[in-house]
Amino acid sequence: MLLPREPTSDWLRATSIALALAALVAAALCALLGVGVAAFALVATAVWFALGIVVPRAALPTYHVYAKMLRGIARVVRTVAQLSCFSVVAAAGITTTSMVKERGARQSGWTGKESIATDSYANPFPKPGPPGAGGWARGYARWARATDSDWALGLVPFLALMRSAQETQDHTLRGEIYALY
Asked: Closest Cα partner for 81 from 168, 170, 166?
């Protein structure tokens, strides 16, 4: 969703193409609506953006303005998604879950663990089927239904939206990506 702060010529060309096409589509809509002056201005804007396809460095100022605008939009999207997540969790906590919200001064949340057979420690919670079958999403959905926490399924789209609107500090390869020799 976000553009890198230091773009390569490919990023500049791609942004120029996208903005030029968007301006042309807007120009066509203005022409269909009979707003000729706006259509002419949008065609001129599309030509200006198309210059960045031929000379990528010419698109740098436009790119930076567009990237800054996207960062502002992403900040709003993250805030709205986070507030939505908090609302879902708060509503679930108030209405549908069996969470213990208060404990007496001398009560503890600790519960003892029952002992299991020694041979069970290799895989204490075996699942039928091959390892990884079904993926994390199916496992998460199964867990939500089994624990009467269906409301937790409503969080997934908001979490995905929040993740897509996050900007990394640097746009290099992340640390967990490596090669084995």
From this structure: 166
